[in-house]
Specification:
GO terms for molecular function: chloride channel activity. The chain contains 17 helices and seven strands. It has 460 residues and is mainly α.
């Protein structure tokens, strides 16, 4: 940047760069940011009129500095955009997608500050505290025995030498422990990534089905198309409920909140459904808030059938297949198109089994137990190897060691089932709903309209 400034001064010009950040946060555009960078090259003696035109070399430097594409002559809020203005679009309404936070090395202070609220630390607080007090106890006993031997020369003080053991076993076994932990974490991450790919497949299939249904809207019919799109938008929500734990309430709690939930009502404050066991026959009674997603997306007359189904996303997939099979033949719609629809719905149904495979197949019990037993034994014997060096600081040292090793193990446990807390499934479900029946779907409709050379208008 200094060399660039010197180069500009040598050319007799100076740069004036204005950076304007505008963030718009509202209920409809929450989290959307529009960043506009205006860069103009002024002459050494600027006049009150328009700025002097810049040379091609200056434009290259300007483009390199801002890493953008200059635009000129475009209307912006009814105003003319001067040449050289760089506009960055990050608003989701202009094509952006929700992004999860990325943490870099520059966030180290924030990560240290938020350590007490870490979910990993909360889960491993038991072994960390135990290792701290265990290490402190061993170091205190060693210190007492050492002082007794020095001051009195009593024979019991000689036990201090027997408490301390060599570090060789821990050095040899440390490599094996590290391999076990790394393998455990890598296995869990592979399951996490597989889960993300499954939901990427659900997103892509939803887009493909909605696109094809829109292309054959005349053959499908407006009413059937609306039913199919509602079922398609409800599918990811029901799949999320399938792979995440259900919220079961006690009968007493349910009776107090019963007025807020109804199978057929339109009011309510919760999105979750409630299941109550009536009597001793084990019959499940389900109460849902039909004014909330996904129940409001289901076609009328199908709500009760879907609610009482054992596998709700599979029921939606079956219903979608039924809707597509019942499309009558026409000059533009035949068995070939019908089979394509059925094939896409079949792939959507495959995602249910793929998610169930991850949920129902944990890491083998023998491997998990052996790893945690090995880790516990290694940590409990480590104070005997280091108390001679660290003294009373053995307790804090052991707490750090336990936090590191047990934390690695706990990370593997948390991402082993990615559908519970790691993947933001609600964001994916909302994105699919918007693209199938929401505002993004209404924006997509313009792609199916047009009249060009040898081309008919698709929409009425």
């Amino acid at each position: 940047m200094l060399l660039l400034l010197i180069f500009a001064l040598m050319q007799g010009d100076c740069f004036t760069i204005g950076l304007t950040m505008r963030s718009t946060l509202s209920s409809a555009t929450r989290g959307k940011t529009l960043c506009t960078l205006d860069s103009r090259l002024w002459s050494k003696k600027p006049s009150t009129s328009n700025p002097s035109p810049s040379s091609p070399l200056d434009n290259k430097w300007l483009s390199w500095m801002t890493q953008g594409t200059p635009t000129a002559g475009l209307a912006k809020n009814g105003k003319y955009i001067p040449k050289g203005e760089i506009t960055y679009r990050e608003s989701s309404s202009l094509g952006g997608i929700p992004r999860m936070s990325r943490y870099t090395a520059s966030d180290w202070l924030h990560n240290i500050y938020t350590l007490p609220s870490s979910s990993v630390l909360r889960q491993i607080s038991g072994p960390v505290n135990f290792c701290f007090w265990w290490g402190f106890l061993i170091s205190a006993i060693h210190r007492i025995l050492t002082r007794t031997l020095i001051k009195t020369g009593h024979a019991i003080g000689s036990l201090a030498d027997h408490i301390v053991i060599t570090k060789t076993p821990h050095s040899l076994l440390g490599s094996a422990l590290g391999l076990l932990l790394v393998f455990r974490t890598n296995t869990a991450y592979a399951r996490f990534w597989e889960g993300r790919k499954i939901w990427e497949q659900v997103t892509s299939l939803s887009r493909d089905i909605s696109r094809m249904a829109r292309l054959y809207e005349r053959d499908i019919g407006a009413a059937k198309l609306e039913r199919c799109m509602g079922l398609l938008a409800a599918f990811p929500y029901l799949l999320r409920q399938r792979v995440q734990p259900r919220w079961l309430m006690k009968k007493g709690d349910f009776s107090r909140q019963r007025s807020r939930f109804s199978k057929y009502g339109e009011d309510g404050e919760e999105e979750e459904d409630i299941e109550e066991r009536e009597g001793n026959d084990g019959e499940a009674v389900t109460w849902v808030n039909t004014g909330k997603t996904p129940w409001r997306l289901l076609p009328s007359g199908t709500l009760e059938d879907c609610i009482t189904s054992q596998n709700r996303p599979l029921w939606v997939a079956d219903r979608l297949g039924t809707e597509f099979v019942s499309i009558p033949d026409s000059s533009t719609f035949s068995s070939r198109e019908r089979l394509t629809f059925i094939s896409l719905v079949g792939k959507l149904s495959d995602a249910i089994g793929q998610c169930e495979r991850i949920v129902q197949t944990p890491v083998p019990l023998n491997y998990a137990r052996h790893t945690i037993r090995f880790l516990t034994a290694w940590c409990l014997t480590l104070p005997f190897a280091v108390c001679g060096e660290f003294g009373l600081a053995t307790g804090p040292v052991m707490s750090v060691v336990a936090w590191t090793l047990f934390g690695i193990y706990e990370i593997g446990v948390q991402i082993e089932d990615p559908f519970q807390r790691t993947l933001k499934l609600s964001v994916i479900c909302e994105g699919i709903e918007k693209e199938v029946v929401g505002e993004q779907w209404r924006a997509r409709k313009s792609a199916f309209k047009g009249r060009g050379e040898g081309e008919e208008e698709i929409d009425e």
